[in-house]
Write a structure and sequence with these properties.
The protein is an alpha/beta fold and 187 residues long. The strands form three sheets. Strands 1-2-6 form a three-stranded parallel β-sheet, with helices on one face. A three-stranded antiparallel β-sheet has the order 3-5-4. Helix 1 runs parallel beside helix 4 and helix 2 packs across helix 3. The longest helix has 20 residues. Strand 4 and strand 5 form a beta hairpin. It is 32% helix and 26% strand.
Amino acid sequence: MYQRYDAVIVGAGGAGLKAALHLATQRQARIAVISKLYPVRSHTGAAQGGIGAALGNMEEDHWEWHMFDTVKGGDYLADQDAVEVLCREAVETVYELEHWGLTFSRTPDGKIAQRPFGGHTREFGKAPVRRSCYAADRTGHMILQTLYQQCIKHDVHFYNEFHLLDLLVEQGRCAGVAALCLATGEL
């Protein structure tokens, strides 16, 4: 079976679904996602503690403190420019997920609730801070459900339970993929 797409995303975890959704909405492109699992069973579902973002809904917090914690938590091996982007954009990403339908736990006044999580500190390591935005004890599952629903809404095509066999490279550029359907054995 041969299909043609503008882009093929390999993996339907949180990163793969977000990449597919971005391409489908920003580029109006024909996008496919290949996954060994049904997307909402991907490993992102294990992220039950929450998603770190310096919203400051429970107490003062800043993206710079979040960045410090992330760099330190990675033993200073992380790409610090990438960490800066991650921490600066985390707040916007949490609100984007909320607007797409992710039902975060709430404070009594209706804000997204935040709780402490390992390594989250204020004032560059002085004391713990509540930075983890959560949806009860199923945050990762809710992220997957939300992103998957948005991908379906934007006509992303899914090849679930397919195993990637090879990248097809032409003149030094990836031009396609070869995958095996686990249910039928068809290429």
